[in-house]
Structure formats: C-alpha cells, structure tokens
Amino acid sequence: MAPVQQGELDPVIHAAARLKITATLATIPPGDKISFPRLQELLDMTPGNLSTHLRKLEDAEYVEVEKTHQGRTPVTYISLSKAGRRAFEDYTDALKQLLGGTA
C-alpha cells in the first residue's frame, strides 16, 4: 500500500466503520488490547461487519489480531499497531487541516 501524503485523508481509515474502530482502539493505551466481543459491543456492529473492517485494517497493518484460547474457548483480541496509531494521528491532523484548523 502506498503511503498517504501529508494533508490527505487515509482511505483505509476514512470509511465510517473503520474510523469508529480506529478511534476506539486509539483510546486504549499502547500495548493493551480489547476482546472482539467487547469491541463489537462498544461499536454496536455485527460480528461479520466488524470482521470485514478489521481485515481491511489488518491488511494495512493498522491493527493486530491475536487469536488464543481461554480454556477451550477461542478468544480474539484486537489492538492498534504502532503503524495504526501513527496513521490515526496523521488522519486526525489531515482532518484538522481540511477543516481549517492547525495541525
């Protein structure tokens, strides 16, 4: 994927659902993660819709998906990668510029 130029809105993040996902994950401290069901609950998204958008973000290396087990139960954890956090910061800066604020 080509890098986004300064002042441009990242099309991977710009889709409404992916923006909500990224903004939510950005509130979690670096190194922490959230379970898939909790993220789904916070965003009020269907499992399929959330999975589809997470895959796009994962393909762009903006999120990290960790699949593990608690006992015999599969659990999926999601976190914002370092690149994803940077991309979200760049996105918000570009949005501020677009809206006439200072970045």
Automatic annotation (TrEMBL):
Residues 18-99 form the Winged helix DNA-binding domain. Keywords: DNA-binding. One of its GO terms (molecular function) is DNA binding. Pfam families: HTH_34. The keyword DNA-binding applies. PANTHER family: BSL7504 PROTEIN. This is Winged helix DNA-binding protein. The lineage of its organism: Bacteria, Bacillati, Actinomycetota, Actinomycetes, Micrococcales.
